[in-house]
């Protein structure tokens, strides 16, 4: 057993740590044993655990858990970048969410992380031309988690969606790497146009709660959007915008706003 654990730690330290946390959680709360065994310890890899968790959550009378699990397993086997993105997302949540103390928490309990990993399967289906199944994933993610992400949207790695309620990300939206957003964020269009109509969010951007970014506009790398803002125009890199409509009110205040999670305007305001 110890040799097996050592080999897991060498090959996949993230999964090894999650398994360690799972064993400790059962020791601390034995009643959680069946859930944690079925969700974590029963699986040989993070990929398998993710497929199980996604299929368990999204299953309904219209689509069985077995079918959904086969789809998720197929996606992970065909595209290793899905698991790489999941590991980056896990790290993002652990590093930036003050309420996250263990890697096992997002995997088992945080709907923002779970919805994002389910979206990644839906996006893979969309890329494979399996549009109706991708739409089914979108529908169930929206119904279950209250997060509506179009499967054609492009979302990078290292994403943290905190609280993750009432998130809307449109069909032609692009979200870069290492982005953090809070609840009730909308990346939407401004009308009935059918072409490229949604925002392009750069790397390292922090989007505050309730912010709306509308239209095919660029939000520059490492910028901050204050809570409740409505962004209708391009945001230069490393700036803070606030208001309705949003205007530049100062510098971003740090190199990586999405990582520092500093949402106070404070001394970064322009005079």
Essential attributes:
EC 2.3.1.30; Serine_acetyltransferase; alpha/beta; serine acetyltransferase, domain 1; 14% strand; six-stranded mixed beta sheet; Trimer_LpxA-like_sf; globular; Ser_AcTrfase_N; serine O-acetyltransferase activity
What do these coordinates show?
By secondary structure, the protein is an alpha/beta fold. It folds into 2 domains: 13-146, serine acetyltransferase, domain 1 (Orthogonal Bundle), CATH 1.10.3130.10; 153-265, 3 Solenoid (UDP N-Acetylglucosamine Acyltransferase, domain 1). The protein has 10 helices and 15 strands. A 6-stranded mixed sheet has the order 3-6-9-12-14-15. It has a 5-stranded parallel sheet with strand order 1-4-7-10-13. Strand 14 (239-242) and strand 15 form a beta hairpin. The longest helix is centred in the middle third of the chain and has 17 residues, at 111-127. The chain is globular and about 50 Å long. It starts with a helix and ends in an 11-residue tail after the last helix. 43% of the residues are buried. The mean pLDDT is 92.
